Amino acid sequence: VYPNPTAGAFSIQNMQNVLQLSVNNAGGKQILYKENPAQGEFFDLRNEPPGIYVVRIIAKKSVSVVKVLKQ
């Protein structure tokens, strides 16, 4: 995830084989969901308040969870 921390938008550097991407706020509410995201695509958190967000990336052979800090 780059940049992290972010001022509002971030991207995932290696999106090969990614099937789904979701972003939840600290309270667990899903605020963003994308199926088959494109390589180099940016994901926008500019309308969300500052805080910690959890990015869940589901690929063909793995699941990754990454925390993103929005300033």
Instruction: Give, in spatial order, the strands making up the sheet with the most strands.
Output: 3-2-5-6
Proportion in β-strands: over 45%
User: In which range does the helix fraction lie?
Assistant: under 10%
User: Structural class, from helix and strand content?
Assistant: mainly beta
Shape: globular
- Mean of residue pLDDT values: 94
Please tell me how large the radius of gyration is: 11 Å
Query: Low-confidence stretches at least 5 residues in length (pLDDT < 50)?
Result: none
Would you list the SSEs in sequence order as H and E? EEEEEE
Describe the sheet with the most strands: 4 strands, antiparallel
Task: Give the strand tally.
Answer: 6
How far do the termini sit from each other?
15 Å
How many helices? The count is: 0
Descriptive report:
- The chain is mostly beta strands and about 70 residues long.
- The strands form two sheets. It has a four-stranded antiparallel sheet, with no helix packed on it. Strands 1-4 form a two-stranded antiparallel sheet.
- It is globular, with a radius of gyration of 11 Å.
- The two termini are about 15 Å apart.
- About 10% of the residues are buried.
The gist of it:
The chain has 71 residues and is an all-beta fold. It has no helices and six strands.
